[in-house]
Amino acid sequence: MCDHLQRTSRVSCRKDLEKAVEEYAFLPFFHQEGFVSLEDLAAREIWFTEQEGPWEWKGTLAREQKCVYGKFARGGAVFVAKDIFPLLVRIRRDGYDFEGMWEDGLLSRTAGDIMRFVEKNGPALAKHIRKALGSPKDFDKELIHLQMLTFLVHDDFVYDLDRHGKPYGWGNALLDTPEHFYGEAYVNSAENLLEEQALERICKRMGADAPEILAVLTGKGTGRKRR
User: What's the pTM?
Assistant: First the structure.
């Protein structure tokens, strides 16, 4: 049984990680300047063992909708508490949906192709999307960009199987739109807030508003560029 997680304690099991996400609200997987991360909290001995650890827990928490998981901080992966994700959507999308951003020329052709593939085919593995699109050179960059804009999230991670039927490797990201996975009403529940109000609520929830935190939350550098 895991003890209740305190701000100074370390993550040693999946339940600890769930509590850490609720505690910190915006928890990067790896160290990010200005933030507490899973890397900072996790006990050293749980990283590379034959037992399930952080690599597997991220998929389980996403699949069970315990949080929202994706690359939301400087292109790095983050566990986001469900109560603040709609606020992040309000901030990152700046009032746009995908179609509006596409029509205004603010997404690249590859980003548009990725989104249309996911919307047409439902949750899709990143490697399958890449292959279907002909492996464009900017695929990885645009896949991260769409997550930074909150248009894509991770539903789960699917592992390849060896000839004995045992999973191996790092796991293949299963990507989806948050509207499909969590529901449109939830995703858009903060759309009537001003960006400043949404940012203030996230900072209050996190108990922090340092400049580097504000820069990450607002997604500065996500780089919406016209085609």
Answer: 0.90
The C-alpha atoms of residue 117 and residue 133 are separated, in whole angstroms, by 9
Nearest partner of 107 among 95, 116, 98, 118, judged by Cα:
98
CB 82 within 8 A of CB 65: yes
DSSP 44: G
Closest by CA to 28, choosing from 19, 20, 37, is 37
pLDDT value at position 51? 77
Q: How far apart are the first and last CA of the chain?
A: 53
**Block mean pLDDT (10 aa), the chain, length 227:** 54 93 96 92 82 89 97 96 98 95 96 97 95 97 98 91 72 94 97 95 90 87 48
- Residue whose tokens read 């690359």: 71
Rounded CA gap, 62 and 68, in Å?
Answer: 6
Alpha helices in the chain (DSSP H): 14-24, 38-41, 54-63, 85-93, 98-103, 109-121, 126-132, 139-148, 178-182, 184-187, 195-206, 211-218
- Residue indicated by tokens 């769409």: 146
From residue 104, how far is each of 107, 140, 151 by CA, in Å? 8, 22, 16
pLDDT at 10: 84
Backbone angles phi, psi at 168, to 5 degrees: -150, 165
**The tokens 């603040």 sit on which residue?**
84
